[in-house]
Write a sequence for this structure.
């Protein structure tokens, strides 16, 4: 009986701005490290930071759109805009890995010496530490706001951190061993590894766009609550859930004796909705009242099977 809730994106937008600031800073640091050393590994690291900046900008846009309330053309709100940002994040990581791999392959064919390697390593380490700290903050915020956009951005930054770690190891090994070919080989290995993270992000995005049910833990809490209302007089069935960004949509049929007054049935539905929202604060709950004696009330082709 209640309408959809707007996505809580206002606070989350501040974290997207933090990600943009971190991306600008790391681009400057990593570009400086590459300019000093000429390392293709450090160049690939700088390229990924540029992708981070683009992704953070898209994330900010998506969070702003997702925070808008329902309107005449979007009755269920705009929360799914977050999935557009997470899809871009996944594709951006894939694109970065391809660019890194191509550059690395070219350098394998023509290995080049690295100059001022230790200075470049020091500068890049500072940039990586910055990215790691921001990724940790974004991941916590993504869990608190239940934002796939912030989680994807955090995973993207952590991918950048691992990329940087691999690159720095490669540059250090080149300095120690004198084998210049190690620089592009490490860059190629890092590019291969980050494809896995892109796949994870794109899979989570696809599941959200396909209206996946709410998480298992939340479903268990919901079922425990509804079980208290299933008595000899009252039945609940056709319970369906889906998630759209941080918002949960829940609908169900509430079956009561036909001799009940409309007011009594309405009060029960209001009570159920109120308690569901106490368990799942970001839920939009819809209940449908029907007489329990009517066989048609038990039929719902939209569910996998009746749940009494």
């Amino acid at each position: 009986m209640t309408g959809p809730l707007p996505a809580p994106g206002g606070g989350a937008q501040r974290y997207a701005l933090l990600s943009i600031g971190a991306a600008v800073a790391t681009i400057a640091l990593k570009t400086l490290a590459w300019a000093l050393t000429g390392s293709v590994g450090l160049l690939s690291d700088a390229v990924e930071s540029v992708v981070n900046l683009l992704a953070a900008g898209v994330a900010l846009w998506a969070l702003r759109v997702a925070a808008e309330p329902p309107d005449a053309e979007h009755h269920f709100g705009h929360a799914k805009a977050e999935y557009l940002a997470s899809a871009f994040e996944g594709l951006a990581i894939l694109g970065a890995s391809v660019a890194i791999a191509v550059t690395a392959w070219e350098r394998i064919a023509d290995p080049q010496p690295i100059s001022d390697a230790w200075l470049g390593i020091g500068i890049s380490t500072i940039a990586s530490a910055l990215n790691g700290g921001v990724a940790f903050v974004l991941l916590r915020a993504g869990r608190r706001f239940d934002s796939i956009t912030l989680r994807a951005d955090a995973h993207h930054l952590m991918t950048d951190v691992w990329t940087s770690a691999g690159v720095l190891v490669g540059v250090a090994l080149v300095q120690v061993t004198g084998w210049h070919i190690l620089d592009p080989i490490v860059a190629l290995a890092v590019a291969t590894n980050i494809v896995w993270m892109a796949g994870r992000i794109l899979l989570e995005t696809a599941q959200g766009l396909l209206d996946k049910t709410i998480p298992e833990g939340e479903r268990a809490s919901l079922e425990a609550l509804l079980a208290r209302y299933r008595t000899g007089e009252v039945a609940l069935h056709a319970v369906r859930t889906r998630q759209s960004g941080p918002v949960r949509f829940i609908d169900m049929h509430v079956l009561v004796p036909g001799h009940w007054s409309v007011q009594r049935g309405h009060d029960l539905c209001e009570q159920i909705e109120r308690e569901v929202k106490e368990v799942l604060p970001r839920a939009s709950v819809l209940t449908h009242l029907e007489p329990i004696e009517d066989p048609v009330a038990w039929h719902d082709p939209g569910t996998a099977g009746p749940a009494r």
Remarks:
- The longest strand covers residues 235-244.
- Helices lie at 10-37, 40-66, 81-109, 117-145, 148-177, 182-209, 216-227, 262-279.
- Confidence is low (pLDDT under 50) at residues 3-9, 304-308.
- Residues 223 and 271 are 15 Å apart (CA to CA).
